[in-house]
Specification:
Chain lengths: 89, 452
């Protein structure tokens, strides 16, 4: 199963590193990353494989959300199918 | 990989524009719960509902979290109780409503629909008992919703049933007079009621439905309003295209959630209801869509045309996005549940007569409208008869959910709180229709119902 993780917020040092560390610790493989900084707003979209994730997906959603609060960004972790169904026919 | 812009658009719709799945409603048949005694029936009803829907709320919450889309309500609809309880020969069905209420609370849903009767052609004995039980049933329970289908395009209009509804609605208002007459918010009078409607208060599990079924109602007025705002000063053809594209996206999410809930619960997928269902939250209003189109206030001339365009475009966009479309499918215009409608009614721009015209081009009807508490029963019956006629002649569902707020007069407000919102008490034309209503009988089906 694949998921999309989005990270949006004020740019600070180490955002990618902190998010990647959580994912690595849980066995989540990052397949693709796009990121941009517009002014001081940081926006990153990660495409990840959660097939080998060591915790239930709903727990990963909570962990990422908590990490986002800790580092001052908003992190959404969502099953890729919601985007596929909305934007692909 | 998906386009970043598409991903961020989806997140914006959810975060800022209130995109949500309004309800996952599980319909279950109670036809196998019939019994000679009311006590046995109530036990069977409670046991079957709690057993069958045990996982509903948990499953809904899991889907909500995994897909990141809020699912506002998890609800249950059941076979019309007048059919289920007919074998009991009891003279009141209030204990059945209380069993439904206990079951709903046990499994954690926020409404259960189906304390209903289908009387479009006439009453069975059980239908009479059910109608007599409605006021006490709704005033002694919290979660139970009731509906009465008084007409169909095929059968015509049962005016004897409508004549009884005026007193029943007033009694509901009186019994819950200390709580803004809230029982009336849980009672709908229908023409051409949909058997697979997932929305309350009118949901019930029709007799043509399977043993159990998952029906999903989508929402998203805020998303449509925002898309229209972004489209700028385009002409109405382009505007309709914008609404269609947006409705497609909204409905695809509904289809996804319905399919996933159906798979996880091992219950067949029924339909997706393509409705724009507002809430009182700012940015979640159907009235504000109409105003974004260019009306100064909802209710001004042009409102019916704007609503007709909106309703049609929502269906055209949604129908390709779902494998089965059903329920009510259209824009809802409940006054108390829509911030823009509340403002328009307060300002005097939106009248009962204009609302009636609007219901000819959208779903579902005169919905959540507060009227003075001293409105005579026959005037309430006549408002219902007018609304039901629109449905019967136009071959569509219409309904009336009126709240004759006890002790309140024009200019007062009633406050339900939560998604039921608040409503200004609207003026009613009280010239007497008493002689017309007292005639009773059936208004024959319109000639275009003869289609065979």
């Amino acid at each position: 199963m694949k998921a999309i993780i989005t990270v949006v917020g004020h740019d600070t040092v180490g955002i990618i590193s902190r998010v990647s560390a959580v994912l690595a610790a849980r066995g989540v493989n990052i397949l693709d990353i796009t990121q941009s900084v517009l002014g001081d707003i940081f926006a990153m979209v990660m495409y990840v494989d959660i097939g080998s994730c060591t915790i239930p997906f709903t727990d990963l959603v909570d962990e990422n959300e908590a990490l986002g609060r800790e580092i001052g960004v908003v992190i959404h972790t969502m099953h890729e199918d919601i985007f596929n169904s909305m934007h692909r026919i | 990989m998906l386009n970043t812009g598409d991903i961020l658009e989806t997140i914006q719709m959810i975060e800022r524009e209130h995109l949500d799945i309004r309800t996952i409603t599980m319909g279950i048949s109670l036809l196998d719960c019939t019994a000679d005694s009311l006590d046995t029936l109530c036990t069977r009803v409670y046991d079957k509902i709690t057993r069958t829907t045990e996982q509903l709320v948990r499953t809904g919450e899991d889907i909500e979290k995994e897909y990141g889309i809020p699912i506002v309500h998890k609800r249950i609809s059941v076979t019309p109780i007048s059919l289920v309880a007919a074998s009991c020969r009891s003279d009141n069905y209030i204990p059945v409503a209380q069993a439904l209420d206990r079951a709903a609370k046990e499994v954690g849903v926020n409404f259960i629909g189906g304390f209903s009767a289908l009387v479009h052609k006439g009453f069975t004995n059980a239908d009479r008992v059910l109608l007599d039980s409605i006021p006490e049933a709704l005033s002694t329970t919290d979660m139970v919703c009731s509906s009465v289908n008084v007409a169909t395009t095929k059968a015509g209009i049962n005016m004897d049933a409508i004549a009884r509804m005026g007193d029943i609605i007033r009694r509901c208002a009186y019994l819950t007079r200390d709580n803004n007459s809230i029982a009336c918010a849980k009672l709908v009078v229908f023409a051409n009621a949909a058997e697979d409607n997932p929305f309350m208060a009118g949901a019930f599990h029709g007799v043509g439905e399977p043993e159990s079924v998952i029906n999903v109602g989508v929402s998203g007025p805020g998303v449509v309003r925002s898309a229209i705002a972004n489209a700028g000063d385009c002409d109405l053809t382009a505007l309709a295209e914008t609404v269609k594209r947006t409705a497609f996206k909204i409905t695809r999410v509904g289809q996804l959630v319905a399919a996933e809930a159906s798979r996880r619960l091992n219950v067949p997928f029924g339909i997706v209801d393509l409705s724009l269902a507002p809430t009182p939250a700012i940015g979640d209003s159907v009235a504000h869509i109409l105003e974004e189109m260019g009306l100064a206030h909802t209710g001004c001339h042009g409102t019916t045309a704007a609503l007709a365009l909106l309703n049609d475009a929502v269906k055209k966009g949604g129908v390709m996005a779902s494998s089965h479309v059903g329920g009510l499918s259209g824009a809802f215009i409940p006054v108390s549940e829509d911030a823009g409608m509340i403002d328009a009614a307060r300002g005097g721009y939106l009248t009962l007569e204009k609302l009636e015209a609007m219901t000819a081009v959208c779903s579902v009807g005169l919905d959540m409208i507060a009227i003075p508490g001293d409105t005579p029963a026959d005037v309430i019956c006549a408002i219902i008869a007018d609304e039901i006629s629109i449905g019967v002649v136009n071959n569509k569902t219409t309904a009336a959910r009126l709240i004759p707020a006890f002790g309140k007069k024009v200019g007062d407000e009633i406050e339900f709180g939560g998604l039921l919102g608040s409503a200004p008490v609207m003026p009613v034309n009280t010239a007497s229709p008493a002689r017309f209503i007292a005639r009773g009988g059936r208004i024959p089906a319109p000639v275009h119902s003869l289609r065979n």
